[in-house]
Amino acid sequence: MRVAWGISGAGHLLLESIEVLEKLKDKHEIKIFLSSAGEEVARMYGVLERIGSFPLVRESKQGHSFPSCGAFNLGKFDVFVISPATSNTVAKIRLGIADSLLSCCASQALKSRVPLILIPTDSKPVVETKAPNGEIFKIYPRKIDLEHLEALRKEGVVVLDHPYDVEKALERFL
Ligand SMILES: Cc1cc2nc3c(=O)[nH]c(=O)nc-3n(C[C@H](O)[C@H](O)[C@H](O)COP(=O)(O)O)c2cc1C
């Protein structure tokens, strides 16, 4: 399959997302769309080089109208996965805002009927996660973050708990 994979600026589920990407690399044609925050955060977690081994679109190198998102309108991808998806990117997608690389790609994907799979970082009332220095801490996603996910599900967006579930979910769109 031709898979577009968005990486937003989240530390949570970042390493697991890259692990899955590396596993799927030989089976699918994958292009990564990396938000500017994603680039910074990946550098902090020491995984930017691994991401750089894929065909890559960097938000930091795009113009304000995100020309690379046009590929979704032109049928170049079979599916768009965003993993990890920050609460910021999820909120924008839910509300129809398209002013960042990933929210614009998601907007074009949805408007062109390309299936969208999200693996949000803020998916349950309590999330335990790890800082770049290895320190473990908890976050408590807001009600609005969880409501966004519910609304997106109702719209037909596939929302998964973990990047490890992506491989199976892709089978639906073969
Ligand atoms: C080290 C680090 C880790 C972060 N992890 C998360 C996260 O797991 N989830 C989240 O929603 N935001 C996280 N953020 C905040 C986002 O990077 C920030 O909201 C950014 O504006 C998101 O932009 P994007 O959605 O375009 O990638 C993190 C920030 C830093 C510096």
UniProtKB/TrEMBL annotation:
InterPro entries: Flavin_trans-like, Flavoprotein
GO molecular function: catalytic activity
Superkingdom as given in the UniProt entry: Archaea
Alphabetized Gene3D superfamilies for the sequence: Flavin prenyltransferase-like
Residues spanning the membrane: none
Domain Flavoprotein residues, every copy: 1-152
Protein's name according to its UniProt entry: 2(4Fe-4S) ferredoxin
Source organism: Thermococcus litoralis (strain ATCC 51850 / DSM 5473 / JCM 8560 / NS-C)
